[in-house]
Each structure stands twice: as structure tokens, then as C-alpha cells.
Amino acid sequence: QVQLAESGGGAVQPGGSLRLSCAASGRTFSGYAAGWFRQAPGKERECVAAIAKDGGTTLYADSMKGRFTISTDNSKNTVFLQMNSLKPEDTAVYYCAASRRLAYTDTTCYQDVYESWGRGTQVTVSS
């Protein structure tokens, strides 16, 4: 399994931006589909975005479309989540995950598919 470590979280005002990074170690991200998920206090973990092994096929949760962008840089073994126009309801712990099980152009928000998970990074959106 690949080891994952998220970074880039922090506190930001509504309307602000953050860029989360997920670095892979042990193996490269090449050959893995990846996803970003989040969990707010008292709520279940939910999907934010996912990207296929091809690095071009993406999937977004409806509430994130147009605001968040997932991307990969296989040369840096990193998956990114660019978050713009942040809202207080975006406050959560954000996790990245990786899966080898998907076909080359497939993406999914189904969490059980992902076999590797990071420990998360806190994002707080507040004025």
C-alpha cells in the first residue's frame, strides 16, 4: 500500500482559498486513482472529489463543483485539492485516499474502494 500524508489545511475566512496536498511515499501515485473526502464534526465522511489513474478524469460532489479542483502531479507523487470560494460549511477534516482497484479512467466516491488513507488535515472556514 502507498502511504499518504495530507498538508495545506488551516484557517481561512469565507470566500478564501486553500490548496491541499497529498503526498505519497512508499510507491508513486502512478497506477492509483485518488480521492479527497471530508468529515465535519458530528457528520459522516463524505466525498469531495476523485481523479482517475489517467490524471484527467475527475468526479466532484455537487456542492463542490465549480469551487474545488482535484489534480495530480505524478512526478511529485502528489495529489492536490484547490479549494476556492470557501464557505463555513466546508469546515471539516479533509482526507486523501488512493486505490489500485479501479480501471484506468474510472473514478468513484465509494469509500470502500480506497485501500490507502491519510490521517487528514483540518480546514476551518470562519470569519
Model description:
- With 127 residues, this protein is mainly beta.
- Helix content is 0%, strand content 46%.
- The chain contains no helices and eleven strands.
- It has strands at residues 3-7, 10-12, 18-25, 33-39, 46-51, 58-60, 68-73, 78-83, 92-99, 116-117, 121-125.
- The strands form two sheets. Strands 2, 4, 5, 6, 9, 10 and 11 form a seven-stranded mixed β-sheet that branches. A four-stranded antiparallel β-sheet has the order 1-3-8-7, with no helix packed on it.
- β7 and β8 (78-83) form a beta hairpin.
- The radius of gyration is 13 Å and the shape is globular.
Number of separate strands = 11
Assess the beta-strand content as a share of residues: over 45%
Point out poorly predicted stretches.
Answer: none
Helix content: under 10%
Summarize it.
The protein has 127 residues and is mostly beta strands. Helices cover 0% and strands 46% of the residues.
Q: What distinguishing features does this structure have?
A:
127 residues, single chain, mainly beta, 7-stranded mixed beta sheet, 4-stranded antiparallel beta sheet
List the topology elements.
Layout lengths: L2 E5 L2 E3 L5 E8 L7 E7 L6 E6 L6 E3 L7 E6 L4 E6 L8 E8 L16 E2 L3 E5 L2
Parallel strand pairs: 2-11
Antiparallel strand pairs: 1-3, 3-8, 4-5, 4-9, 5-6, 7-8, 9-10, 9-11
